[in-house]
Amino acid sequence: MRRRPGIGGLQTAAAARDHYRLLGENVAKLRTDLMKEQLATFRSQLEEFARKHKNDIRKNPTFRAQFHEMCAKVGVDPLASNKGFWAELLGIGDFYYELGVQIVEICLATRPHNGGLINLHELCTLLRQKRKSDREAVSEDDCLRAISKLKILGSGFEVISVGKRKFVRSVPTELNKDHNEILELAQAQGFVTVDEVERRLSWTSGRATDALDTLLDEGLAMIDDGHRDGKRRYWFPCVSSISSSVGSDM
C-alpha cells in the first residue's frame, strides 16, 4: 500500500519549488541587467561613432543607411525628434524634414502626369535634380525614410510594391490585386490593351475592362486610340520616365 507524504514532506517540496522559482527569477534578472548594461555600452559607442563620422553620415547615403541599421539594432531612432540628441548631433532630422517637403512638392507637380502614383526610382531622380546644388547625396533609402515620416501627418503618402518595383502613392486610391497586375504588365512597354490583359493574365473581357476603367477613372491611365490596328492602348505614365518633361518645372 502506497503511503501519502506527511505534512513535513509537503512543506519541504513547496520550499524547494519556491527556492527554484526565486533562483530562476534571479538568473533572469541578472541576464536582463547584463543585456541592459551591454545595450547602454553599445549606445554610448554608437554616439561616439556618430560624433567621429558625422560628416560621412550626412554626406554619404550608403554610410547613412548603414548607420540607420546600427541604430535600429539598439532601438535608437535618430528621426524620432527634431530636438533630440541625435538631431542636434547630426542635423539629420532637418535633412529628412527637408526631403519630405521636396517629395511632397514633386508628387504634387507630377500628379497631372501620373495620377498620384510615381515610381520610387523616378521620384529619387527628380529629387536629385531638384537638390543638385545641395551637398548631401540622396538615396532611395533616404526617400523611404522621409516618406515614412510623412505618414505621421496622415497625408496619404504610402509606398506600395508592384512586381519588383516600388511606387509612391500620394492620393488615397485603393489598388487591388487586379490593378497591381495590370501595372506590372504595363512596365514592359508603358501601356496595355484589353486583348493583351485577357491573353497574358487569362482574364475575361469584363474583368479586364472593369479594372482598366477603374485605373482610368483614378487618373492613373491615359487612352490612346490613334492606331491602325484599331486597338485602344491604355498608357500608364507612372511606369514611364517623366524627368525630362517635368524636371524643369519644379
TrEMBL record:
Q: What are the record's GO terms for cellular component?
A: ESCRT II complex
Gene3D superfamilies of this UniProt entry? Answer: 6.10.140.180, Winged helix-like DNA-binding domain superfamily/Winged helix DNA-binding domain (1.10.10.10)
> What biological-process GO terms show up in the record?
protein transport to vacuole involved in ubiquitin-dependent protein catabolic process via the multivesicular body sorting pathway
In terms of superkingdom, the source organism counts as: Eukaryota
One Pfam match, given by its short name, reads: EAP30
Q: Which InterPro entries match?
A: ESCRT-2_cplx_Snf8, Snf8/Vps36, WH-like_DNA-bd_sf, WH_DNA-bd_sf
Provide this UniProt record's keywords sorted from A to Z. Protein transport, Transport
Q: Which family does it belong to?
A: Belongs to the SNF8 family.
Its biological purpose is as follows:
Component of the endosomal sorting complex required for transport II (ESCRT-II), which is required for multivesicular body (MVB) formation and sorting of endosomal cargo proteins into MVBs.
Assembly and oligomerization: Component of the endosomal sorting complex required for transport II (ESCRT-II).
- What is the protein name for this chain? Vacuolar protein sorting-associated protein
Tell me the organism's taxonomic lineage: Eukaryota, Viridiplantae, Streptophyta, Embryophyta, Tracheophyta
